[in-house]
Write a structure and sequence with these properties.
The chain has 509 residues and is α/β, with parallel strands linked by helices. It has 18 helices and 14 strands. The strands form two sheets. A seven-stranded parallel beta sheet has the order 3-4-2-5-6-1-7, sandwiched between helices. Strands 10-11-9-12-13-8-14 form a seven-stranded parallel beta sheet, with helices on both faces. The protein is globular and about 85 Å long. Bound molecules: adenosine-5'-triphosphate and magnesium ion. Adenosine-5'-triphosphate binds next to helix 3.
Length: 509
């Protein structure tokens, strides 16, 4: 459907056009008219389908330009997401000169206060902890807020955040509209949300699968100690444009990043212990393509919109199936294709089954590539590099090249050059410390059907069709936050077939 049929004003339509959006996505088509009409809405749609604009556009349209108070509040679970959302609002509201400001932890609060004083924003985006901080200091006033958005709503209403959210809501005395958005919305959370909403319209985009269907999902069976080498070979063969690797712990982020760097990959890591400045600079480099591989805990899993991410590797499978959806959703965004590979150790098969029950999609097995296949992948990249170099001015080198050619054959010289350009990763030994495995939870309903322990020989080779090495792999939820392993709230799935468990988390901004 065209955006012009949704009741949006001309300024916004101009901004939409400038953003390059041609048609509204299904979630936008169905939620924008409801939100414009002032209704409470719960919107659930696949990752990367434009939920941000689905709430941003109606908020921008409904602003009273003459009012000098905060009229809309958007709460985001992470600082990076708060910044990203503020940027999208700013872009879409530029023509109307909408005043949008963002507040998040880890940044100088004094500067935020000065800026809030200088100009009261019409729309405030923030993370819960820092918003509460401002509320307690009385540096923001939410009395006149009409609309509240909980982006990543299931996360915001989960154990770790719910109290903060309730406290924030208590400051919003005249709330008229509440909008909830997420790619995942477990039933128990839906029930909680309905308690503080006013007859919400629930818009769930019926997609065949919960995960974006543009993502090819694979799993690789592997022992923990073998994951690193297999992943390097996969990267060599696939040569992703941009890849995100999710691991379980902060220590793993550091070790995997260092290992990748030692083998010549252009990688950097982010996790909750790094300074905000560091996290932002790594993300900036990744967004601009200066960095090829981002290694992260689940901190980065939700909502981050980085165009051009072609591959997601779940070095560790997530414990929580929702987390899988959000992690692999960093690829396959806005109509692009993507691929995810999840590593599964033999005792984690049960987690994979739980994920598959949620997504209603089976991950295809992927056979680890051989060293030779990995080298072929590297050489392909090396050849492209040579072709690029040939376009440059090489006159400075011809004399030395001639000298070399007198003593060596052209084939030997080019071979040496290729060897130098390819990483030959197997030469650099990397050892990643082992982590406590996830608690065993059985083999799932279809129990252990996929060969026991025959890692390395994808029994169903050929599913993905790329080069015939595909076996299988899968994903794991990162432990950046202190949620107790195995601490499932559970129980809900018995009553509702479509329901699934989720983990109690304890998050603080
Ligand atoms: N109608 C549209 N047409 C094309 N691209 C769009 C459209 N709407 C949004 N986009 C773009 O799609 C990308 C993904 O959007 P967004 O980040 O809002 O997804 P999301 O549904 O919130 O995903 P997640 O569940 O991961 O948070 C963004 O780059 C956005 O600019
Ligand atoms: Mg989003």
């Amino acid at each position: 459907m065209k955006f012009s049929e949704l009741g949006l004003n001309d300024e916004l339509l101009k901004a939409i056009k400038r953003s390059g959006f041609e048609e509204a996505t299904p979630i936008q088509e169905q939620t924008i008219p409801l939100a414009l009409a002032g209704k409470d809405v719960i919107g659930q749609a696949q990752t990367g389908t434009g939920k941000t604009a689905a709430f941003a556009l109606p908020i921008l349209q409904n602003l009273d330009r003459h009012e000098k108070t905060i009229q809309a509040l958007i709460i985001e679970p992470t600082r990076e997401l708060a910044i990203q959302t503020q940027e999208e609002l700013f872009r879409l509201g530029r023509d109307e000169k909408a005043r949008v400001q963002v507040v998040y932890g880890g940044a100088d609060i004094g500067r935020q206060i000065r800026s809030l004083k200088k100009q009261v924003p019409a729309i405030l985006v923030g993370t819960p902890g820092r918003l509460l901080d401002h509320l307690k200091r009385k540096t923001i006033d939410l009395e006149n807020v009409n609309t509240i958005v909980l982006d990543e709503a299931d996360e915001m209403l989960d154990m770790g955040f719910i109290q903060d959210i309730e406290s924030i809501l208590s400051y919003v005395k005249n709330r008229k509209q509440t909008l909830l958005f997420s790619a995942t919305m477990p039933k128990p959370i839906l029930r909680i949300s309905e308690k503080f909403m006013n007859n919400p319209e629930i818009v769930r985009i019926k997609a065949k699968e919960l995960t974006a269907d543009l993502i090819d999902q694979y799993f690789v069976r592997s022992k923990d100690s073998e994951k690193f080498d297999i992943m390097c070979r996969l990267i060599d063969v696939e040569s992703p444009d941009l890849a995100v690797i999710f691991v379980r712990t902060k220590r793993r982020v550091d070790e995997v990043t260092r290992g990748l760097q030692a083998r010549g990959y252009n990688a950097a890591g982010i996790h909750g212990d790094l300074s905000q400045a560091r996290r932002m600079s790594v993300l900036k480099r990744f967004r601009s393509g200066k960095l090829d591989i981002l290694v992260a805990t689940d901190v980065a899993a939700r909502g981050l919109d980085i165009s051009g991410v072609t591959h997601v590797y779940n070095y560790d499978i997530p414990q929580d199936p929702d987390s899988y959806v959000h992690r692999i959703g960093r690829t396959g965004r806005a109509g692009q294709n993507g691929m995810s590979v999840t590593f599964v150790t033999p005792n984690e098969i049960g987690y994979m089954r739980t994920i598959e029950q949620l997504t209603k999609k089976k991950m295809e097995p992927l056979r680890p590539p051989s060293d030779d296949q990995a080298l072929r992948g590297q050489l392909k990249v090396a050849k492209t590099k040579i072709e690029d170099l040939m376009k440059e001015d090489l006159t400075k080198y011809t004399q030395d090249a001639d000298e070399l050619l007198e003593n060596y054959s052209a084939v030997d010289l080019v071979s040496a050059f290729l060897k130098n350009l390819s990483k030959d990763s197997s030469k650099v030994e990397v050892k990643i410390s082992s982590e406590k495995p996830l608690p065993y939870k059985g083999g799932g309903r279809r129990g252990g059907g996929r060969g026991r322990g025959h890692y390395g020989h994808g029994s169903r080779n050929g599913h993905g069709g790329r080069g015939g090495y595909r076996g299988g792999d899968r994903n794991h939820r990162g432990g950046d936050r202190d949620h107790g392993h195995g601490n499932y709230r559970g129980g809900h799935s018995r009553r509702n077939g479509g329901d699934h468990n989720f983990v109690i988390k304890n998050k603080k901004d």
